[in-house]
Amino acid sequence: MAKHDKDATFVGDSRISAKRIPNIAPSYSDFPGKTEPFWPNFLLKEWMVAAVCLVGFLVLTVSHPSPLTDLANPNDTSFVPLPDWYFLFLYQLLKYPWAAGDWVVLGTVVIPGIAFGALMLAPWLDAGSERRPSRRPVATGLMLTALVGIFYLTWAADHEHSLKHSASKGGSGGGGNHAAAPAAPADTSFKADAIWTAQTSCMGCHGKSLEGGMGPNLQKIGATLDATQIADVIKNGKGQMPGGLIKDEAEIQKLAEYLASLK
């Protein structure tokens, strides 16, 4: 049966059943060898891959321990903390006068809030169907600007920190901290006397066996300083070392004589 209406022709076919068939998934038995149970076959494979990755990660952590820096020293005022690399761009942003000082709220709340808020609302703000970057100039331009800004700020923060850190550790130029002489290698077989092991505040920087740490190696300090000079350093401090850590005059003299004997 056909019905003509202008230029369109409608054809009806009585062989097509009008009865709706439920949407039932086919039986997996119809596809032998092409399917497998989720448990335990599929999940076991996933667990085995995860176990191999975990073991590999543990091997790396054991064979290459984390590069720890110097021990925390509250008396070291020259230390400049640095955030993790993924926060370096925000750290650098706060160095600019328009995002710090009286405008610190702009750098800590307003700018990051607008950026991350726009990122979360991007699916609703840019709901167009076009997917080619060239056809979406506004979204593409904003994303490229943000990426370039983040990469630049991250690089700038790391670069500035590296320059200042190297300068404080021995870079040239006047007015800065001068580099200390290279530390003498520590003698691992050296055993300190009881007069030293009783000085917990001293061992915190110079080590249990005077091998050095935050402070210099003192295993042969007697070759450069005599007892009087050592006692003066203990009383008044020197460089980043504070004075007055030991109050007893007799104990200071006894410790100074012991250190002066190390040559």
Automatic annotation (TrEMBL):
Region ranges (Disordered): 164-184
Record SUPFAM superfamilies: a domain/subunit of cytochrome bc1 complex (Ubiquinol-cytochrome c reductase) (SSF81648), Cytochrome c (SSF46626)
Subcellular location field: Membrane
GO molecular function (one): electron transfer activity
The organism's place on the tree of life at top rank: Bacteria
Domain Cytochrome c: 181-263
InterPro entries: Cyt_b/b6_C, Cyt_b/b6_C_sf, Cyt_c-like_dom, Cyt_c-like_dom_sf, Cytb/b6-like_sf, Cytochrome_c550/c551-like
Membrane topology value: Multi-pass membrane protein
Transmembrane stretches, start-end: 47-66, 103-125, 137-155
Domain Cytochrome b/b6 C-terminal region profile span(s) in chain numbering: 28-155
Assigned keywords, A-Z: Electron transport, Heme, Iron, Membrane, Metal-binding, Transmembrane, Transmembrane helix, Transport
PROSITE patterns: CYTB_CTER, CYTC
Any single GO CC term annotated in Swiss-Prot or TrEMBL for this entry: membrane
Protein name (record): C-type cytochrome
Organism: Brevibacillus composti
